[in-house]
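Researcher: I'd like a structural prediction for the single chain below. Treat it as a standalone chain; there are no partners to consider.
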Amino acid sequence: MNSPDCEFSRREFLTTATAIGLTSTLGRQTFLSAEQQPAEIEIIDTNVSLFHWPFRRLPLDDTQTLVKKLQALGIKLAWAGSYEGILHRDISAVNQRLTDECRRYSELVPIGSINPTLPDWESDLQQCQHNHQMPGIRLHPNYHGYTLTDPRLQALLTQATTAGLFVQLAVSLEDVRTQHQSLQVPDVDLAPLPELATKIPGLRLQLLNAKLRPDLLNKLSQTPGIYFDTARVESTDGVPALMERLPAGRVLFGSHAPFLIPEAALVRVYESSILENADLKSVLTDNATQFISASKARQKHPARVRVKTHDSTKSTPPRLSAGLPDSEVLENYRIWDSYFTPAHSHPGRDGSTSLIAEIERAMPAIKTGRFEKLCYFPHVGIGTTTDRELEQKLK
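Model: Treating it as a single chain, here is the predicted structure.
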């Protein structure tokens, strides 16, 4: 129970932190004079998402509506990922739209999406750090088709940690029982995580929407750098029980809004009769502040993320021609040429020899242009070549 010498009472804490919104939700009527008001509590929600959930509309999926709800509940800051990052393949554009949207609201902190199965994810990571000034990134292994044993994930976590970025890993987004029949996505298997985390000193990884078995929770509690949110914690005593099993500072408030209504997560935290006010404040504010502060401190003098490029072994990038932008600008582009057809007038008598030779000769230009993919069409058919023997063969 609460000790009598707490700095301020639970009732005062509740009234101050949630202003009018949550107080009316809980049906409490508490009013304090100006002299009685304690210092303002700035709740931090570490788990919200912007834009539209792919499978149905949500009541709070409009950013302005969501922000107004968070404000009414006393949430001063929200770490926002993007639902577009789940299924979109152009992650660079996803993160740009997220950044632009968050700039409209001082309450939102953009958390970029990264998919290590896509080409040039290193560039996406660098953009999150340098271009968008994001403190962290959010991963969706189950939707992006990789496991925690994938070596690309270890490479990503290592580079993110070196860059001073924290990592959020969404264990689940939707209960498997209500998922669309054409896209059944199980929760991320976290069994390999303790071993993986020990390979990356300094890693700060927060698990979102996790509902863990006791044995795995015990292993993760002994693994430095693993943090949790409160979105899928059940019952009013669930948060104190989670905090009791973890080292101090490892539980951060997260609502999973707008997929879940944020009031539910706040009620579960506030209505616990076990947490001391100091513990309550640590979950709602202090732990998240310390978690994100480490990113800000490390990014003052970050180690630059090395982006793999074809000319990375050279001391200076090659001089570009044909009106292409500077190399630094070009590296931020994703260029796909869908109509690459060298030697289409005569691909060779076997239909490919000359074509392959032309592609090989074109490789320097392809590397310079940093083309991500080439989809070529030979265009071989009757009347398309000047080779009489080949024309007869095609007939």
